[in-house]
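Renewal narrative, Specific Aim 1. Our central claim is that a sequence can be written position by position from structural information alone. The example that follows is taken directly from our test logs and has not been curated for this report. It begins with the structure tokens describing the chain, in the order in which they were read.
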């Protein structure tokens, strides 16, 4: 690990990088947790709307068997039936439930790496941090390659909050 001036990184530079990485892991962990909740909410909302419309259409069809409905009732039932089919197609094609699960898995991976990183940073001598950072970089790169992306607005919002409130405490051994 070297700084921009081609001299070896100082322990203070390494510790600064460790703080930045801890924040980065915290941001990714929180973002994926947030996306899981958001996507589960969307999937639930579409499912409830689909079930509700499907129930209304089914009830209207059974009611029409007893008597011949008015023209407006037939049009309304047909429209609701089409809306139900569209919502069901959206639910299937958008895959919110599956995407929520992928974000949940990402949150678990980032959370585990974050806890491992925090534990090691708190227990290893500062001089061992460069080796730790190389290991974390490799694991982090692997996770980044397989997880879904986060919308920029959510990332920025969570990043501002975490950077403003969280840092790790690790001092150079003198």
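The sequence written for that structure reads:
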């Amino acid at each position: 690990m070297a700084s921009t001036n081609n001299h070896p990184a100082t322990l203070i530079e390494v510790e600064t990088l460790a703080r930045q990485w801890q924040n980065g892991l915290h941001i990714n962990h929180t973002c994926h947790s947030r996306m899981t909740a958001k996507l589960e909410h969307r999937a639930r909302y579409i499912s409830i709307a689909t079930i509700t419309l499907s129930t209304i259409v089914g009830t209207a069809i059974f009611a029409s068997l007893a008597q011949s409905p008015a023209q407006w009732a037939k049009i309304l039932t047909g429209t609701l039936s089409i809306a139900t089919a569209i919502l069901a197609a959206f639910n299937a094609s958008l895959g919110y439930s599956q995407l929520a699960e992928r974000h949940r898995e990402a949150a678990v991976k980032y959370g585990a790496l974050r806890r491992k990183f925090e534990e090691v940073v708190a227990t290893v001598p500062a001089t061992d941090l460069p080796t730790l950072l190389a290991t974390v970089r490799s694991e982090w790169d692997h996770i980044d390659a397989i997880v879904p992306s986060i919308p920029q607005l959510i990332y920025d919002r969570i990043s501002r909050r975490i950077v403003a409130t969280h840092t790790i405490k690790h001092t150079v051994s003198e």
